[in-house]
Amino acid sequence: MGSKRLPGKSFKFLGLNHRLIDFSILNALGSKYLNNKNIFLLTSKKKENSKLISYVKKKYKISIVEGSELDVYSRYSVFKKQKNFPLLRLTADNPLIDPQLIDKFITYFKKSKSDYLTTRAMNHSKVWKIKSDFPKGISLEIFYSEKLFINDKKFDSLNQDSPTWFFFNKKFKAKIKKFPSYGAYKKLKDNLSFTIDTKADYLRVKKFIKLNNCIPGTNNMSKYSQKKFLNQ
After folding, report:
1. Architecture of the domain defined by 9-230
2. 123 CB contacts (<8 Å, ≥6 apart)?
3. Which positions ≥6 away from 65 have C-beta within 8 Å?
4. DSSP 138
5. Residues 128, 104: contact at Cβ < 8 Å?
6. What ranges do the domains of the chain cover?
7. Dihedrals φ, ψ of 207, to 5°?
8. What is the pLDDT along the chain (232 residues), one digit of tens a residue?
């Protein structure tokens, strides 16, 4: 809610009845692997998030972790007692990650025997040179809890805003992999952006959702139109 470029963005409407946070949560709930008991909203203790927290508690009854505004990594401490526990990371400003993609991603991770799997390209890493097969904003990461906390004491002000920093900078021994594109995603050019950081992003994605009748919690990626997106 405290975004400087787009204040209150998590609460902004992307459809007639769905806010950005609704898209994120409903898409997760649409996965066969996820439910109200294993979905957590990790946010900060800042007062401006109180409206968002109340809304999510009442509507979805999922667990909510309130932590540091700047130290995003610290919010994951709730999972420290979990041993060899897979953690899927979804960022709430990426509203078009549909349940089918989540299912395929988790299934691939289970079969790959990797420690860390992602769809992302890490442009700010000097050692992760692999290019993403997905447009910006189709961002997923999954990793094991034990591998995340192995670097617990090494997090500082330079990297605490990125919980998976030690994975994609290859600062310890771990098997990391990129998730390959498939189906309709292969038709989307990688210079497209589905993330929402600014007002321009918000208006563009909102229009895209309207043109393609994107309904959160459904597998409607096959209906997405790159042409409609580019012609906005």
Report:
1. Alpha-Beta Complex (3.90)
2. none
3. 40, 41, 42, 43, 75, 78
4. -
5. no
6. 9-230
7. -65, -40
8. 999 999 999 999 999 999 999 999 999 999 999 999 999 999 999 999 999 999 999 999 999 999 999 999 999 999 998 888 999 999 999 999 999 999 999 999 999 999 999 999 888 788 888 889 998 999 999 999 999 999 999 999 989 999 999 999 999 999 999 999 988 888 787 678 999 999 999 999 999 899 888 999 998 765 665 555 555 4
